[in-house]
Amino acid sequence: MAKKKKIKKTNEERILDQHGIEYQEMSFDWLNLGQTALTEAETAGMPAKSILKTIVLQANGSSRDYLVICLPLEHEIDLKVVAAELGKKQVHLADNKKLIQITGYVHGANTPIGINFKQGFPIYFDERIKDFPEISVSAGKVGRSVRMSQKALVELVNGKYLKVE
Predict the structure, then answer these.
(1) pTM of the model
(2) Taking the C-alpha atoms of 18, 37, 50 and 143 in order, what is their torsion angle to the nearest 10 degrees?
(3) Which domains can be identified in the chain, with CATH numbers?
């Protein structure tokens, strides 16, 4: 009988374990499957609006002023609204080519859990997620997610809610 291959936990899952936060490991390949992945999630009972993407922004053109916004995959971010909400002159997307140097993650694997613990960047959540008791975020690896309590995640990363559109 063949042994079942055990999936190695990501650093983010280990952080959740260390803090006693319950989560469910999931596969969710938004980058390659797009809308099909959302449809599969909905079929599995996960509202699409509860699945978050993690966007890294740079404020005021400063190489030291980064912040993270987490919002539902299907929503867009209004950079002018975010800048106004945060009292910043301007915010723009961090350079995709430098993401690994900025956050330690490749595009598609950025996660508020790891970024908060590794980089200490401020983490903001779209205020529209308050309606969802559970949310999904990247587990630090492309195609891998964790589903967990929204309040536990926000508390873990010292997150704040923000209007993003």
Answers:
(1) 0.89
(2) 20
(3) 29-160 (3.90.960.10)
pLDDT in tens, 23-47: 998 877 666 666 777 777 777 778 8
- Between CA 140 and CA 58 the distance in angstroms is 20
User: In the structure, how many helices (H) and strands (E) does the chain have?
Assistant: 7, 8
Residue 99 has a CB neighbour count (10 Å cut-off) of: 18
Partners of 71 in the β-ladder: 53
H or E stretch including 113?
Answer: helix 112-119
Query: CA–CA separation, 83 vs 93, rounded Å?
Result: 12
Please spell the DSSP secondary structure of 37-53, one letter per residue.
HHHHHHHTT--GGGBEE
How do 123-126 and 66-72 pair as beta strands? parallel
**Residue 133 DSSP code:** S
Start-to-end C-alpha separation, the chain: 54
> What are φ and ψ of residue 48, in 5° steps?
-55, -35
Give pLDDT, residue 2. Answer: 53
The greatest distance separating any two alpha carbons of the chain, rounded to the nearest whole angstrom, comes to: 62
- DSSP conformation class of 163: -
Tell the residue number behind the tokens 């005021």, with chain if given.
Answer: 60
Task: Compute the distance between CA of residue 114 and CA of residue 85 in angstroms, rounded to an integer.
Answer: 24
